[in-house]
Amino acid sequence: MIRAILAFALVAAALAAGHLLIDEKGYVLIAFNNTTIEGTIVAFVIMFVLGFIALWLVLKLLKTLLRMYGKTTGFWRGKKALKAQQVWLQGLWASINDDAAAVQSTFNKGQAPEEWQDAQQALLAKAALQQGDKAQALGHLQNISDAAQSKVPKLWLDANQNEQALALLDAPMTEKKPTQAAVSSYLAGLLQAEKHTELATAINQHYKRLDWSLAQWQAFMARWFTANAEQAVGQFEQLPKALKVQSEALYMQSQASAGQWQNLLPTLQKWLKKGQYQAFADVVVHAKNPDVKLRTSLQDALKKHPEQPQLLFAMGCLANAAGEYELAAKVFDNCQLTELDKAHLKPVLNSYEQTQQFQKAYLLLAAK
């Protein structure tokens, strides 16, 4: 447009210059209805130039005003975005530190950025669960968009909404090759929902997709066997060979804690015959309601090998589990207790406490 105006101005200037060269001022007449405007070409050129300058100044002023408005609007918009970002970070750090009250207080004062609204609802749901308010947590979970629901199955489990959680966890498992994260979450969900039969099947099908360390597998198996002691024997037998080897001790400890000796007696007796005394002691330290046959087998082994400290310690554990605290305390007095870890000290401390020998218990703990 500016080029067109400049071209028109040049043409007008040329016309005016032409008339000046021939010593004629030129004449312009503009008539519109009853209105007539007339004058020389020079006058009209001057008016046009002045009008053009005025128009340019007006446009410049408008551009400046628009720029100022944009900067002002951007300032307030940027300030609002900065505040939302600060609120989000404060709430996130509070959640990381398990400060449920701070999470709720932070998000009551402001909202997270729009792209983090689902995560904000998840943090609020977690905070409500930490405070024991499952109804409020459920409300926040329902506010999460459908696209983000697959990210929060554990929160649904914690809110006692097992069916909803497992439905979310099932979706990625239908893929041909589910990811490690999907398998891990699915197994954890089944365990928390106490779907033990489904869990055993899932472990057999997908355990190779998990790059878990030995410690991770043992921690998971310990939780499973403890939560499912009555059915653990059948499900343990269904495990792949590799998992059975590394979780056998945990399985036997959970069975001992539940008093399920009928499943353990053959193996424990075999260990006594083969001299696997430490493995035997590691199981009976968790004993409850010990089996009579097991105590008889242990007594026979102790008569043959009285020099074995693990057998003597195991005898004390079985006596404590049977409620014979005086006998257990006397047996433990002859054991090398300072070499035991805290997990193995539990029956020792219990027998001392039950027989009012608190000083021995205190000194034993102080030595640790």
UniProtKB/TrEMBL annotation:
Cited InterPro entries: HemY_N
Segments forming domain HemY N-terminal: 26-132
Keyword terms: Membrane, Transmembrane, Transmembrane helix
Pfam families on file: HemY_N
Tagged with keyword Flavoprotein: no
Residue spans crossing the bilayer: 40-59
One GO term describing the cellular component: membrane
Subcellular location: Membrane
The name this protein goes by in its record: Heme biosynthesis protein
